[in-house]
Amino acid sequence: MGEFSQGRVRLSNLGRRLSHFVSKTDLSDPMSGFFVLDRKFLEEVVHSSSGIGFKILLDLVTSAQRPVRFAEVPYTFRKRVHGASKLDLLVGIEYLLLLLDKTVGDWIPPRFVIFGMVGSIGYLIFVAVLALMISVFNIPFAAAQSITTLIVMTANFFLNNILTYRDRRLRGGRFVRGLLTFLLASAFGVTANVLVAQFLRRQDFPFYLAGGIGLFVGSVWNYGVTSMITWRNVRVRRAR
Fold first, then answer.
1. 200 in a domain, yes or no?
2. How far apart are CA 56 and CA 49, in angstroms?
3. In a domain, 170, yes or no
4. Rounded to whole angstroms, how far apart are CA atoms 141 and 137?
5. Which has more pLDDT, 180 or 91?
6. Domain-ending residue, one of 86, 104, 122
7. Where does the pLDDT of residue 236 fall: very low under 50, low under 70, confident under 90, or very high at 90 and above?
8. What span, in angstroms and rounded, lies between the C-alpha atoms of 148 and 179?
9. In terms of residue numbers, what domain contains 26?
10. 99 with 77, same domain?
11. What is the pTM of this model?
């Protein structure tokens, strides 16, 4: 680690331990961007790679269906002379997405996991803002519910645009259109959530189970619709 700060050393060690859990390969620096590989190995694993973020070595190694043979040449980091580190919160999210894709990607899309995490943050914001409007500003419940719902859906759009769909981030006019489509889709998701929960409650489901299933149905709806409409992956056609 050379002259890295203690915080950076701890962060790197954490990333290495997480990568070992996924790759089952004892690489000293699985997040390195400086490596050489055999072409046969590349052809073996490239179609199973995730393509998430820029930790390409880790992506390729975790895509292998067999133990990977490797050799390492040691080096020591020195102080950076030019440029700046790419390590930030968003890079950490991409790294988490890659690990999720390699562990649960066959069953659950990793974006959906991040989407659900954003939704959980939105729920905490919802409870706090709703309590503030009712207890401090004495706003009637129906009006406070409506205002808070709009605030939280907008906040969820911003967070998903930055975190969940960083590689498809919307800007300019597409940002405004994306916000409108997200709000519309979320309105249908909230409706589906409430209807499913009420139906299950009438069938004598426990309130926590009925509410949880309703929330899951609404989340799946929101994720599916917004990924296809709000953050659809537009391919630019080149004129020949």
1. yes
2. 9
3. yes
4. 11
5. 180
6. 104
7. very low
8. 16
9. 6-104
10. yes
11. 0.64
